[in-house]
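Honest question from a wet-lab person: if I give you the sequences of every part of a complex, can you actually get the arrangement of the whole thing, not just the pieces? Trying it with mine:
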Amino acid sequence: MSEIKTSTTESREPGEKAGPSGARARRWAGVSSLGAIVIVLALLPLAIAGSYKMHVLILAFVYIVVAGGFRTISISGQFNIAQGAFMGVGAYAAAIPGVWLHWSPWITIPLGAVAAAIVGSIIAFPFARLRTVYYAMGTLFLGYVIMNLITAGGKTTGMSTGLGGVKPLFENRTNYYYLGLGLMVVSLACLYRFEFSRIGVRMKAVAQSHQVAASVGIGERGNRILVVAFSSFFTGLLGAFYCHYTGVASPSSYGLGATLLIIMYVLVGGLNSFWGPSVGVVILLIIPEFFFRELKGDLPYVTAAILLIIAFLLPDGIVGLVKLIKGRVVNRLIRKEVATDVDGD
Amino acid sequence: MDLAVQTVINVVLLGMVYILMGMGFAFILNLLGIFNLAHGAIFMSAAYGCYLFVVKLHFPGLVAFPLTVLLAAAFGVLVERFLFRPMKADFNRTMMVCIALSTILVTTFNRFLGTNALSIPSFIKGTTRFGSYPVETDRLFAFAIGVIILVAIILFVDHSRWGARMQAVTQNREGAALQGIRFSQVAAIACAVGFGLAAIGGVFTGALYNLTPFIGDVSLIKVLMLVILAGLGSFNGIFYVGALLGVLYGALPVVLNGAVVDALASIMVLALLVIRPKGFFGHE
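Yes, you can. This is the full assembly:
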């Protein structure tokens, strides 16, 4: 049976200078460019306050984290097709106490995150026995069951039409924008720390070979439950934020269709790199909604075409393509350097 | 008594549709190792295709039905050749291809035929009397066709040369290759049979029940239930579990709420995943 490919090693670009100074320079370049992106995003409301573009960006913040959560589970080697449902658990766990018990949104949003993490870890326990194709099939079914149970809740959950009247956090869309941006930055920072920590390395070991990992004392089950719980916390957090933003928790936003969309973001951006999901959201959500809105009905065709191109030519997604180009350029530069050195001698 | 007869017929037909769908999915999963997410979309497209043949092109139902199935099988061969084979069973890449395929099909039918529920006109009008109970002839016809196809499939898998090759590939791909069995040919046939069976299930569903662009998702879920319960690599299991699900979804809604039945079935599947992830009839 086919194995799911994951980024198992921090691959160094060919020809890149090793050693502390090179690593430090690379790190500074990365941090400063990320800082620049965040500053631009923070200043953007001055130009597009209250517009549709702002709404798109808020959605993008939500989906970047949810897709990032999907990828975080995938570093342990598994393909979680219940990601949309985990988001739904967060949303409903925030919406129900808010609507029926009139709790403040500042309590219900963290509650949604915790609920999603708890549900995720309970579910991860039996599912830790399944791998690859079977895990994917099991979780696809699981997502359906979760959404079914939620809609079977009668009046409490609003059935299949969804639960309306979720209390808004703010009057103003700009405030949502800043909260969404903040949540995204914090969540991505946590996911990043997780992936490149000791625990993240263990996940990658489990993904590569659970037998070898077990033989050096890295248990499969515990690590896989941990990664699902950790990722679904942030998925639930943003799911809860999303439902407070839209004011409604509706099952259609968290069903199979939504999950497939999330998977598309990740696969187009690149499953093997941390920034893949973010790039995927930019390409499949922000760019079409900003510049190609008149295409609306035909957009799925464009998306499918992009997906096919990626599947045939660039299995590592857009980020993989960027890495490839960067590697070639660096290689050429080095070759030139070596050539001039030889000439000099 | 009338209700009982209706229920029995419902159980048998539902069970049969599930078995047809599940077999098709299992063929592709066992032989190619591909989780065919587009199976539901194929099911839906075949139902719409048959609808278009009958309603828009005025083909008689008895021509449209085999035509749809053959087209679906041919489509399966094309998909195997141009989409599945180049992916070399890499999980991520086959996932992308399947999602793209299903997106294209669902969007197309959604855009051009709308989301209203349609129904394929019945192939044979009227009712047949069984003693004193009237039964729609269409359902009897569907039942007869279904039985013939299932028997044919069993004969094909167990007693034909290609069936033996398929079983060999399922058991050990390298070993089969060493015996001179060409994997690509077997894979093409598996895809043709798989898509063809999905199309038969789709046309039955479209003719006997309703037709919307969303039946694909629902049927994909049912197929997953079936395959998880039956266990992988097991053809016999699919028959038993298909019959079980037919009883569950055909008979229980008479006495229980539909949502409760769904919840029961779901809990059964999840419980099985906890206790015995290999399914009822899975080996290894």
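Two things worth pointing out. Residues 18-116+134-228 of chain B form one domain. The first helix of chain B runs from residue 2 to 32.
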